[in-house]
Amino acid sequence: MFHDLNVPWTDATRELQRTVAFLDLLGYDVVALTHTYSGKLPSDISSPVPATLPFPVPPRMRILRRCNIFLTDSASNFRIPHLQQHYDLVAARPTDDRTLQQACMSLDVDIISLDLTRRFESHFKFPTLGMAISRGIKIEICYSQGIMSSDPAAKRNLITNATQLIRVTRGRGLIFSSEAKSVLGIRAPSDIINLASVWGLGTERGKDGLTKEPRSVVEFARLKRQSFKGIVDIVYGGEKPVQTSTAGAKDKQGGQKGKANKNQNGKRPGENMDGTPLHETKVDKPVSKRQQAKNKKPKVQDVGGDEKQSS
């Protein structure tokens, strides 16, 4: 299953419908519609992405709701858990090294999305990003920013930062998303895998960035919201059948089994025509010659005794 976890939400229903339909045509199965919060979070948090979209969705496609937060002030980050009640995924976009370190170390987010079209103050460090990966947070690379940009510096920064991210993280915990605002910024999964190979990521790891890694972050986010402490999940196993119907079925099966064990005459295979079991039937066995000789001796003695008495 191919994932694109960053498609910006827009009120232009027709353009968004074209984007979703084109993603389905390219073979994507899971798409996340993203709403971005810039600045402080509002007092009344609600998702502008409706649960039911105003246009028909392809039957095999799964739509998720996601929000992006620009990390500028650490004082407003305590309200991030409230966003998890309204969105399936919560992503943080750091603006400097301090907020990047905070997102990797302590923030309860699902994805860290970096703006790779700009130049960062310092190089990425493995201890910082490795801590985020060990906590189950994925690092997102958005390719549409460099494709649709007309600034050569933005494309150069995207290639440089993506190559550095792949080298520092050793290809682990990376996901690829489009962040495409129109259909022109979307690419097929095979094109993204080839692009990742050019940046230094292998073909298998590039495919994992569209299938395995996004699926793990989606399921991990679902478990955090629906299970007990992200460990125990309650699964509906069905209802217990009624006992009376079960007993009747057993009796019926027993009757059919008894009928199946009888032959055409209505008797079981181990019975005679009289209904007597074969092992209880008395059959006259042939008498041996020795037994016949023993039986003759008493008769001869009886005959001799009678003759003496008569004389």
TrEMBL record:
The keyword Cytoplasm is assigned to this record: no
Keywords: Hydrolase, tRNA processing
Cross-referenced InterPro entries: Pol/histidinol_Pase-like, RNase_P_p30
Cross-referenced Pfam families: RNase_P_p30 (PF01876)
Cellular component aspect of the GO annotation: nucleolar ribonuclease P complex
Domain of life of the native organism: Eukaryota
Basic and acidic residues bias (residue ranges): 277-287
A Gene Ontology BP annotation from the UniProt entry: tRNA processing
PANTHER family for this protein: RIBONUCLEASE P PROTEIN SUBUNIT P30 (PTHR13031:SF0), RIBONUCLEASE P SUBUNIT P30 (PTHR13031)
Protein name per its UniProtKB record: Ribonuclease P/MRP protein subunit RPP1
Lineage: Eukaryota, Fungi, Dikarya, Ascomycota, Pezizomycotina
